[in-house]
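Narrative progress, year one. The postdoctoral researcher (J.K.) led the effort to move from monomer predictions toward full complexes, under supervision of the PI. The following entry was the first complex the group processed end to end, covering 1252 residues in total.
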Amino acid sequence: MNSSVSQSAATRGTLDATALREAVIGSVAKLAPRAAARNPVMFTVSVGTVICAAFTVHAAFTAQPFGFSAAVTLILLLTVLFANFAEAVAEARGRGQAQSLRSTRAELSARRVRADGGEDIVPATQLRRGDRVRVSAGEAIPADGDVVEGVASINEAAVTGESAPVLREAGTDRSGVIGGTWVLSDVIVVEVATDPGDSFLDRMIALVEGASRQKTPNELALTVLLSALTIVFLAVVATLPGQAAFVGAKADVVLLIALLVCLIPTTIGGLLPAIGIAGMNRALKANIIAKSGKAVEVAGDIDVLLLDKTGTITHGDRRATVFVPVGDVRDVELRDAALLASLADPTPEGKSIVQLARERGSVIEGRGGEFVPFTAQTRMSGVDFPDGRVLRKGSSDAMHTWASARAMVIPGDLSTAVERIARAGGTPLVVADDRRLLGVIALSDVVKHGVRERFAQLRAMGVRTVMITGDNPLTAAAIAAEAGVDDFMAEARPEDKLQRIRDEQTGGRMVAMVGDGTNDAPALAQADIGLAMNSGTQAAREAGNMVDLDSDPTKLLAVVEIGKQLLITRGALTTFSLANDVAKYFAIIPAIFAGSIPALGALNLMHLASPTSAVLSALVFNALIIPALIPLALRGVRVRPMSAEALLRRNLLIYGAGGVVLPFIAIKAIDLLLSPLLGA
Amino acid sequence: MEILIAFGLAILLAWPLGRYMAVVMQGRASRLDIVFAPVERLIYRWLRVDPARGMDWRSYAAAFLGSNVALFVLAFTVFMTQAWLPLNPDGVPNMSWHTALHTTMSFLTNTDQQHYSGQAQLSYLAQMTGIVTLQMLSPVMGLAALVAVLRGIVGGLNVAQAREGEPRDLGNYWADMTRATLRILLPLCLVLSLALTWQGVPATFGGAHHAVPVDSAAGMASQTIPVGPVSPMVAIKQLGTNGGGWYGPNSAVPLENPTPLSNLLEVVSIPLLPMACIFMAGAFVGRRRFTALIFAVMGTLCIALTTLAVTSEQHPNAAAHGIVADAPNMEGKEQRLGPVDSALWAALTTQVNNGSVNAMHDSMNPGTGLATMSAMLINMVWGGIGCGLLGFLIYMWITAFVCGLMTGRTPEVFGRKLETREIKLLSALLVLQPIVLLGLTAIALSVPSITGNSNPAFHGLSQVFYEYTSAYANNGSGFAGLSSGTVWWDMSCFVVLALGRFPAILIPLAVAGSLAAKRAAPAGNGTLRVETPTFGFAMLAVIVLFALLSFMPVLVLGPIGEWLSLAAPSIR
């Protein structure tokens, strides 16, 4: 991607000092009860910390030993702080990313067009939806909006990182402009599309800030499950003293709180908000602005991708792919003739012919001559050389007429070649010199490099791709086969797209589509994921639930991955967190009852040195695992294109089995380190 | 060997039975219609129901609850007035109000936890109307609920016509009840009861026999041997995962279980219908591999728990150490049956939620106690009729939720998404079990004056915890050793019984109702399939993690503590 150019240091993997400080301050600020209550699991830990602290203070004042309860209190406090830190780091990164986008338009002023045609100079922050502003070459566009008059080339590097200028024109599908980008040429009038504080960027910033962030549906469901587990373990721990007393064992309150904190799913509970924010960050980093967290999450569920052929699957311009000589003309003759005829041709097709000829080994240099450009009347172009030689290339029927007029012999295999190219979805260009017809150049819509592989990956993940094109079915089928899409819609009109989306949805499938035109808007709104191109019309951008700042339709593939990654990270860490409980039980249960029921020592599988060090080791592990997993939470579990079955097996092995084994080793290791300290 | 025969026979019989049940419960036409259809029409007319009218999950749940209330009132009345009612040759008095409440709830919930001794405290009429009616209908209610849920998870009967979000038809409760009773349970009971009568189980309306023992000089001048229509009741007790016997000591009494053949028949009948339900479920959702998944998961747990119980009973009883040679544990067992049969029965009866016993669970070794308690805590290794599979579905949904996330999609089962609403409902059920069981155990233990334990320490804790676990699991087997029949035990178990039964049926029904109305996504390469070994393995892990981790401390203080203390010679 070309997105990282403009991003500040805060947005790249590492945190700079300011952001780090911000995160540390944030993690303390989040201790406030109101903020803490948003996360039931960590709130339980906070309450436990307070109770432990109270016991410590009480013991200290009544001259009882309080070292152990003080240590427990401290570790619990750290656990909460680590969880808060995870969230704060994710927020800081997100905010940094969004700020760096927003700062580009902070202090812009605008020339607002009055009804009478005059202009007022106002700060950009005062612009309202519907205001019109005039922007000339060398000025910055003050707000998101649509070009309503004129055409201009615009440098969007500040937002997208892409340095090549883009063309924006009123009344076309490429009328959308972003605030903070620069007009390079001409004058345009832009109709402002958003009120201050309501731009896509503002909405995106809200998505990465913990306080105002809405929990996404899956996150909510997971929070419910985690809360239920917390309540279960609360019941376990709360009823334990009553049961223990019956068998003659005493259970210390601080120990019970330690047990509770170890059992409740603090790892996933602490990292859950960070995972959600990090998902938004990844979208933002890919220069995608999602209008809701839900949209990103839903992207992981997509079953069908509807992709416009042009610009997504193919380059959109026709390129020369094959030279087909006719009659007794040799390959190289046709190749060199095609090259000479096109050297001065400025069109993309002409350039691609030159490129192809060079690739095929032509070393001929230009010999001057007069270029005859293509016109709608002649439908051919070529070169007249000073020595009288003439080269022409053009559409088959135009060349036919031209050749007949010169009484040339039409070789028998010419029409076969022309037909074959047309049937394969290409455009045949016939080449001739002043004496005979040389052959045909096949121009075809070339499938983008790497697209086929991407589609194969998507198929492995269970996502079907459908190509939409206005081409005739023959051409469409040829390109579809070449690109490896699962299905295609030929001669598709906008209403066909809408119908296709509805049909897929009735079949229970989730559909994503990309669009930029106003006539795409209904389909974008109907699709479960509508990714609008930022270059597209305002209507399209409003209808979609995501906007791609790079206007790169292949971005949809990245969006699907980000959505899946978000869910997989949550699931994997939940599994890990639950699996950890096994080892923690074996550490703490024998420790709690070690004094009163020595026989339970047999459960001390890890042979931890002493009850005290067993409890503290388990707690320390429980606290440290949170910061240890922050990088994973922020980066996300790596998504490989494989079937659900394989993915599940892999993740169960890593996070399930690993989650059972790792704490046994880690707690033992911490115990080995701690016990000499405690041993005195 | 005997174990293999019992299991093999049960599975062999369950397979055709399950297919027959699918035919019956799907209401497909069969040759037996000539016999049953007229009777059914009579019943429908009498109940004034239209069997063709579909119900959504709410109406189905309401009908279920309504029928429970009606039966509760009926049975409670009989127990409270049996002294004045006919068919009471032995002059049994009315029940105390709290025992009557407990008994009614116990049989209504298919638990059959008995805080009374049947032969002494119930008249023939009470046994036959109150007890047998409930024993007959309560398993059928579980089956009906299961069938409704199975219809729901594939979209309901009106899946083809209904639009997304519209309530779905989960079948007609009254029709399901009638068909299941008439065409499945009654014929099966008839067959088993005849076989048992042939083996010598009494079936008579005559009063108790009086006998003069041959060694009457030894202190007992005469002995009363209560009899009655025992064999039909034993049949329904075994087949209907009920467990409440005619006699207090249940199937350890020779009159309930006279011969090795009768023992085999009774063992095989315990898991028969729950296993048949599994075959039926596969047919209902149209996936054979679903049946395979259930068998694999339940079978693995069954083998593990049964092995634990049987091997544990092969070891000598620690209390008898030094008294008898190192023989298997024979305390509290029928000499005729021996340790293997007794342990197998104990393992099965707790797994299957039956609760009938042929030995004293109280006297078994701690390992067996651990196995039986774990089986009841999990409560879905075969499980009760219908309810066992409902328990399986609950764990399946939770596993699918966690595993679904790990495959990168919103979790779904059979194409229908599990969202916050479903997870909330399931979470309520997850939370309920530990709160009820652990809370009441702690209370009961803290006030020893009301528990009246016969054992202190670990074993005493096991007794109390077992009683509540058995009640919550709607199992009904007793660890014994408690002074049950007191107000405290009757009333606390009354609450536990209700909480263990109704949420466990209503919540899956609600989840199925809500899943049914959702848009179903076709399965693709990216969708998680539940019928795979990987998922089965994940499910086992979730079951062990969820069901056992929450109870590990109490199990440590109970059977595990006892086990370790017995193993270590140097106990306090």
